[in-house]
Amino acid sequence: MRYRRFGRLGWRVGEVGLGGAWLGGRRNEVPIDAAAETVRTALELGVNYIDTAPVYGNYYSERIIGHALEGWRKEVFIATKVGRLPDGFDYSKDRVWRSFEGSLKRLRRDHVDLLQIHESEVAGWEGIFGRGKALEAMKEMRDQGLVRGIGITGADLDLLARAVETGEFDSVLTYNKYDLVTQEAKHKLVPLAQEHDVAVILGSPLHMGLLGDRKEELLRERPSYVTENMVRKLDRLEEVAKEFGDSLAQLALRYLLSDPRVSVVIPATHRPERVAENVAVSEGPRLPEELVRKIESF
Ligand SMILES: NC(=O)c1ccc[n+]([C@@H]2O[C@H](COP(=O)([O-])OP(=O)(O)OC[C@H]3O[C@@H](n4cnc5c(N)ncnc54)[C@H](OP(=O)(O)O)[C@@H]3O)[C@@H](O)[C@H]2O)c1
Q1: Is residue 223 part of a domain?
Q2: What is the pLDDT of residue 43?
Q3: For residue 240, is it within any domain?
Q4: Average pLDDT taken over every residue of the chain
Q5: What value does the mean pLDDT take over residues 179-208?
Q6: Looking at residues 77-82, what average pLDDT do you find?
Q7: Neighbours of 14 (CB within 10 A)
Q8: CATH number of the domain enclosing 39
Q9: Does residue 21 line the site of ligand 1, with CB under 6 A?
Q10: pLDDT band at 5 (very low <50, low <70, confident <90, very high)
């Protein structure tokens, strides 16, 4: 595993992290010991950054991670979120505090490394920065040593850019905005984050599975985040992957890791063998610049 500096927090983070959304499977069908095995495998392979949220698996993801970390002594950075709960969205200071306290219990920790605002576009500016709203609570937590860094997540790049410019956030996470089939955030958000020394976390690096195991399912269902233009690129991307000796999923990670401004990519999986495939990308070669340009020209 290669490690990168995590923005101004200065942490040394494995460039392939673990996304926690589906640790328990799509319907929480994976028993907790088996799910914890995926986390343990990741840790043993050098992953030291795990992303989760209360809403993932209806609190199950945080419980799995708490279970998996029992007895693990090496440094690991745990990132969770506030504002989105299984029963809906709430960015009020009170609810953010309660949500966070629940996360600490499920994760079985006395602090969280990174606490992020979940889906900032739902919070809106007021829900983030208003009096008695999320950020106020998060800063109290940081002052009390319960949280080390504060981050923001979302898919509205303009809102994220404005938030980064306030200097309040240590990290920014976006998803489905920078991957093999779309590069919007590469030009809009990443340069700004670098300017402010804010860590860049790429969620959904496989475009929510379009570039991995869920390809056929998503081609059938065609959710709004899978556009015609993206679908048109897939055959050519498969060809590049084959030439390079990668699976499409591995090419997707290798492509993102060719950008040194990216702090960590966090593919999600509930299979230990997938974790190994994903980590292997970090150990292999980078994509040559001309191949990056070719991919972006599709
Ligand atoms: N607002 C936010 O904060 C936000 C939003 C989106 C995402 N995220 C974070 O980003 C993480 C990842 O996003 P995501 O779950 O949307 O999507 P993703 O990582 O782009 O794709 C996950 C899918 O890809 C499959 N996969 C993983 N590794 C693979 C491989 N090597 N080969 C083939 N298929 C592979 C997984 O299937 P299997 O499980 O069957 O392996 C899963 O179906 C989330 O867990 C979350 O932590 C955060």
Answers
A1: no
A2: 98
A3: no
A4: 98
A5: 98
A6: 98
A7: 22
A8: 3.20.20.100
A9: yes
A10: very high
Statement: the pTM of the whole predicted model exceeds 0.90: yes
For ligand 1, atom 47, which residue shows the shortest CA distance? 19
What does the pLDDT look like over 97-127, one tens digit per residue? 999 999 999 999 999 999 999 999 999 999 9
Cβ–Cβ under 8 Å, residues 15 and 264? yes
Distance CA 122, CA 128 (A): 10
Tell me which of 16, 52, 213 to substitute to probe ligand 1's pocket, judged by most ligand atoms within 8 Å of the beta carbon.
213
Mutate to test the pocket of ligand 1, among 23, 208, 273, 281 (most ligand atoms within 8 A of CB): 208
147 C-alpha to ligand 1 centroid (Å) = 25
Three-state SS at 46: coil
Q: How many domains does the chain have?
A: 1
Question: Is residue 77 included in any domain, yes or no?
Answer: yes
Question: What pLDDT does 20 receive?
Answer: 98
- Ligand 1 pocket member 204 (CB < 6 A): yes
Q: Is 116 exposed, middle or buried (0-12, 13-18, 19+ CB in 10 A)?
A: buried
**How many H helices and E strands in the chain?**
13, 12
How far away, in angstroms, is 132 Cα from ligand 1 center?
33
Q: Which atom of ligand 1 is nearest to the CA of 179?
A: 20
* Identity of the amino acid at 161: A
Mean pLDDT of 211-239: 97
Q: What's the CA-to-centroid distance between 148 and ligand 1, angstroms? A: 25
In a domain, 228, yes or no: no
The C-alpha atoms of residue 15 and residue 280 are separated, in whole angstroms, by 11
| Averaged pLDDT for residues 131-150 | 98
Range of the domain at 174: 3-209+252-286
CB-ligand 1 contact for 256 (6 Å cutoff): no
